[in-house]
Amino acid sequence: MYQFITGPLLWLSFTIFFVGCFTHVVLYIKDLDEALDRVSYTTHIGWAIRGALWSLISWMVPFGTRSWRVKPVYTLMFYLFHIGAVIAPLFLSAHAVILESRWGISVPTLPDVVADWLTVGVIVAAVGVVIRRFILPEVRILTTDRELGALFIAVAPFVTGCMAYHQVGDSTYWTLAHILSGELLLVAIPFTKLSHLVLFFCSRVQIGIDFGTKRGGMKSVGMPV
Amino acid sequence: MRKRVEATFAILLILLCVGMRLAYTGNEKLPERGEDLIILDALDSFGERERPAVRFPHEKHVADEQGASNCLVCHEPRSEEGSGIKFAFKNRDGLSREAVKDLYHSECLGCHADLEAAGQPSGPQICSECHVNSSVDSPRSSHTLHFDASLHALHEDAASLDCQACHDSSGAVQRVVAQDASHPVSPKNSSHALCITCHLNVRTSGETSAPLDCTGCHANPPASASSSEDTLLSENVAHGGEVTFDHDLHESADIACDVCHHKEPETSCSECHTDGASPESGGITLQVAMHTRSSERSCLGCHESMGAGVVDDCTGCHEPFTVGHK
Questions:
Q1: A162-178: per-residue pLDDT in tens?
Q2: Contact across the interface for A101 and B105, Cβ inside 8 Å
Q3: What 3-state DSSP class applies to B38?
Q4: Residue B6 lies in a domain
């Protein structure tokens, strides 16, 4: 069982994940249309790159944009969730052991206690996000089973991983559930709203170029200040 | 369909987990215990551990029918021929914390994975199956070895060992001296080096009686041993080691009383020199008091100075260990 789900099934999940994400990016770029979007993506390449990077960085830094600053509690929940969700699995020592033993790849690792707190942060933030979704009318009307389903899939590996790490109940079951839910998350990413894993970068780059060139980004170029 | 793909995946995940829970005849993992249990605490010397130490059931890893060569799967042979194996896991010396961790993971998990791939019974590959939380720990079982008279007789009679095979000239069990004085050899490792090296050599020579598995020696339940019928029986049928001291003979040998009774004429040796180093004895145990060659108060010292030559035959004083009624 363990060999199968961390062997062929893992390969399959990774393949679907990478091919799916790559396809998303390719299709996104392919579907850009300078005429329809009325954005000259390639004309002012320097300004375009500057705008794209500025947009990416501003939105990735906590409280880096106005929208982050007007909702500080949500911003904290958001970063608590996303920082943990990205860093904990990538640098978990137990994952590194598998990488090392299977493929001989050595990666830097976090102390287990840090990864544990990040995981708890992810779970707490997810609960907070769900509560917010139910109590604020402006997001409640947007909340469908798609949103809740995506959140459930995304959080499941962290809950099961936490149970396995702390050996609550049958830790073998929790570990197997953790692996399977992690693989389902990988598979689900290209097919669900979780595809924002790559599409966030695509849309930020696109909007960054738009604002960096056309919508005021080049306003002072050639103009008297 | 496309609109509900997240929910579909979520429901699938729930079904998957519930199904696995139902299908999986999992067992609550209990910490390993028993006489053969070894706590793998090699990382302790590098500071605090991140995961619970592995409770390693040695017996499960020893396929006895393969004999001594099987040890070399995990242990290195010592450099000198016939000097046994190193008890630490192979290739571990001088490694960093991360390297020790990698070594155990690659060797243990690699072997377990290979066995599973070969369709053979295998060991755990999931973190918590080896690193069992100490919060659900049970006390480490005792490794005390009851080397009683019958076992002594077995080594002397059946294995035809001289006293000196195990004892030094003071009568104590031989201790292995560390090559590096800053890392003294623990009594445990010393005894293992003495016994297992000998057993290994016996087994290598084709003889099968010397046990190499942990419970071959550490089998008695320690706490209840004194009341166990088996132990009582073995103590009744085997005896030996006693010294029958002929006081009259020593008196007639022109030895003054105070040579032996150096404190007071009426005080016997064992009043001060107990088995432990009591304060009255000046830290000299009964065994040392009887066997110190450099002291004329001791049996050995006196016998040698009286011209008996170097005493190296224990059975000149001690009864041989034999199986049978007294």
A1: 988 988 878 888 899 99
A2: yes
A3: strand
A4: no
Yes or no, beta carbons of B27 and A170 under 8 Å apart: yes
Same domain, B222 and B303: no
Residues of chain A contacting residue B7, judged by C-beta atoms under 8 Å apart = 145-146, 148-149
CA-based end-to-end distance of chain B:
90
> Is B15 near chain A, with CB under 8 Å?
no
Q: Which of A101, A149, A167 sits opposite B106 (nearest CB)?
A: A101
Q: What is the pLDDT of residue B219?
A: 65
Which of B206, B239, B272 is the last residue in one of the domains? B239
On whether residue A220 sits in a domain, the answer given is: no
Q: How far apart are CA B29 and CA A64, in angstroms?
A: 48
In this structure, are B33 and B121 located in the same domain? yes
Q: Do B9 and A192 touch (CB under 8 A)?
A: yes
A109 within some domain: yes
Positions of chain A with pLDDT lower than 70, given as ranges: 217-218, 220-225
H-helix or E-strand spanning residue A99: helix A93-103
Q: Could you tell me which chain B residue has the CA closest to the CA of A3?
A: B113
Residue A145's domain comprises 44-212
Measure the CA angle with vertex A168, ends A164 and A173; round to 5°.
50
- Work out how many domains chain A is built from and give that number: 1
Residues of chain A that touch chain B, judged by Cβ-Cβ distance less than 8 Å: 2-3, 93-94, 97, 100-101, 111-113, 145-150, 152-153, 156, 160, 164-167, 169-173, 175-177, 180-181, 184, 187-188, 191-194
Best CA proximity match to A119, nearest among A87, A148, A143, A95: A87
Q: Please indicate whether, in this complex, the C-beta atoms of A100 and B105 are within 8 angstroms of each other.
A: yes
The answer to whether the Cβ–Cβ distance between A172 and B125 falls below 8 Å is: no
> Are B175 and B198 within one domain?
yes
Domain that holds residue B296: 247-323
| CB nearest A172 (choices: B11, B26, B133) | B26
Does residue A23 form part of some domain? no
Tell me the per-residue pLDDT of B104-118, one tens digit each, with 9 for 90 and over.
Answer: 888 888 888 888 888
Which CATH number characterizes residue A48's domain? 1.20.950
Q: Does B275 touch chain A (CB under 8 A)?
A: no
Nearest CB partner across the interface for A177, out of B10, B17, B51: B17
Residue A143 in any domain: the answer is yes
Low-confidence ranges of chain B (pLDDT < 70): 1-3, 22-35, 63-69, 134-144, 178-182, 219-240, 308-312, 322-326
Question: What's residue B234's pLDDT?
Answer: 43
Question: Which helix (H) or strand (E) element contains residue B18?
Answer: helix B5-23
CATH code for the domain of B107: 3.90.10.10
Count other C-beta atoms under 10 Å from residue B224's C-beta: 9
Q: Is B16 on the interface with A (CB under 8 A)?
A: yes
Contacts of B41 (CB under 8 A, 6+ apart): B49, B53
pLDDT in tens, A25-45: 999 999 888 888 888 787 778
Distance CA A180, CA B4 (A): 21
- Is B290 a member of any domain? yes
Interface touch A97/B113, C-beta < 8 Å:
no
Handedness of CA A178, A179, A184, A190 (dihedral sign): positive
